[in-house]
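Researcher: Good morning. I'm working through a list of sequences from a screen, and I'd like to move beyond sequence-only analysis. For each chain I'm collecting a predicted structure so we can compare shapes side by side. This is the next one on the list. No need for commentary yet; just the structure.
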Amino acid sequence: MQTPAIENKPPRFYHLHLQEDLLEGWTLVTETGYQGASGRVKKSFFSNRDDAIESLILMRDQQAAKGYRTVFSEGMIQE
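Model: Good morning. Structure tokens for this chain:
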């Protein structure tokens, strides 16, 4: 997700990534910052997939409300 460029500032980005760990848990990785620069990384751990997906969707919706737009999406949620 990213915001549009404003004047002389580059766009901000918000990257959400969900990955399964080796102990049957899930990690939601978020990275935020300005495009072209390294960002701040935060990891949140979940014991089950459903909670991780719920958190990812909530964060996505919160960022969309702040003006971020989805520019790339990969993967599918399999039921």
